[in-house]
Design a protein that fits this description.
Blueprint: H1 23-28, E1 35-39, H2 46-59, E2 62-65, E3 72-74, E4 82-83, H3 88-95, E5 100-104, E6 128-133, H4 139-150, H5 172-182, E7 188-192, H6 200-203, E8 210-214, H7 223-233, E9 238-243, H8 244-247, H9 253-260, E10 264-270, H10 275-284, H11 292-295, H12 306-312, E11 317-320, H13 323-335, E12 340-345
Parallel strand pairs: 1-2, 1-5, 2-4, 5-6, 7-8, 7-9, 9-10, 10-12, 11-12
Antiparallel strand pairs: 3-8
Helix pairs in contact: 2-4, 5-13
């Protein structure tokens, strides 16, 4: 890369808007297991999570996070959060026992698509929803004020045992366990694992402190460009977990990673199908098995060689077909500078 001719001045982030003080009274009344605090934005930073934990420890409310946070601090020292489910029926059941919902840095959750016969609103119609801090508002200031209002004492998050390295077949479960066992402190995890990463947050709860960024707008293909940008702006390593169908939208990002010598490990999760689109297709029930559209969900015939693609774009690459191999590849890539790709081929199911 060519150096800039002149020093670059960082662009300051716009200041957060003041939160609504009038909402404090309503938020402070949200108590007990049928109340919940839903976090997003700055409330998902380590400082915000510490404040929110004090609030819920005092109020007895549940601690939730939005289904697709832009970025969340996670791992050692951070509380385990209950993530609102992507599937609207599951989310409605999850939120069905919530009588009082307090939003801090988050919007009220809604269904991702307009499914026929399924309500878009996930919260019960008779539930009381209080917006203490909308997205862009001073979520940290709102949490600090709520802590003071409740007189919530300081607390600590009990440490969890170190995650164990998995063994055996490479499955979505052992994939997430392998990530949890090998994460290096300060890593930025770019999560575009889609259906293969359902256990990621749980499996990395005891890993060294890290951050996770997720697919906020359901836009397949975000993972590699996001990893590229994160590596440019981060002093630590970036780990991108990218489903094979998503990878195909933005594979040229690998060339930029190689050109700039960025510290990124890309793990391509190979099940050779658009599993999430296949699931949505079956959900609609509009298309029969064996139809021409079914073949559009298939990523074989021929199988793609992601190792060869990566090497052709200048990125060293290896394949993993077992949990043990994946653990070894992840640990090796984290110890070596520059970009690396691991093709993680799942066992047939």
């Amino acid at each position: 890369a060519q150096p800039c001719a002149e020093p670059v001045t960082a662009v300051a982030a716009p200041p957060a808007r003041p939160f609504e003080p009038a909402a404090l009274e309503s938020a402070s009344r949200a108590r007990g297991p049928r109340a919940a605090l839903l976090l997003g934005g700055a409330a998902l930073t380590r400082r915000g999570l510490a404040l929110a934990t004090r609030v819920t420890a005092t109020s007895g409310a549940r601690l939730l996070m939005e289904p697709f946070p832009a970025i969340v601090d996670h791992g050692a020292g951070a509380p385990t959060l209950e993530r609102v489910n992507y599937v609207p029926e599951f989310a409605q059941a999850q939120l069905g026992e919530v009588d009082e919902l307090v939003l801090v840095g988050a919007r009220e959750p809604v269904g991702p698509f307009d499914y026929e016969g399924v309500a878009g609103r996930l919260v019960r119609e008779d539930a009381r929803v209080t917006t203490l801090a909308a997205p862009g508002d001073d979520a940290l200031g709102a949490l600090e004020a709520l802590v003071e209002r409740l007189g919530a004492p300081r607390g600590t998050v009990a440490p969890l045992g170190p995650p164990a390295a998995p063994r055996g077949a490479l499955t979505p479960e052992t994939l997430c366990a392998a990530v949890g066992a090998t994460l290096v402190e300060g890593t930025v995890v770019v999560d575009e694992s889609i259906t293969s990463g359902l256990h990621l947050f749980e499996a990395t709860s005891a890993s060294p402190a890290h951050r996770i960024t997720t697919l906020t707008g359901h836009a397949l293909g975000y993972g590699l460009p996001c990893a590229l940008g994160a590596a440019v702006g981060s002093s630590g390593r970036v780990l991108a977990l990218v489903a094979d169908g998503s990878f195909l939208y933005s594979a040229p990002a690998l060339w930029s990673m190689a050109r700039e010598g960025l510290d990124v490990t890309v793990v391509v999760l190979v099940n050779r199908r658009y599993a999430i689109l296949e699931w949505e297709r079956h959900r609609l029930g509009a298309l029969a098995e064996g139809s021409a559209s079914a073949s559009l969900m298939d990523l074989s015939r021929p199988d793609l060689d992601y190792v060869a693609l990566a090497r052709g774009l200048g990125v060293p690459a290896r394949r993993a077909t077992t949990a043990e191999e994946l653990v070894e590849r992840l640990a090796a890539s984290a110890a070596e500078p520059g970009p690396h790709l691991v093709e993680a081929v799942f066992a047939p199911r």
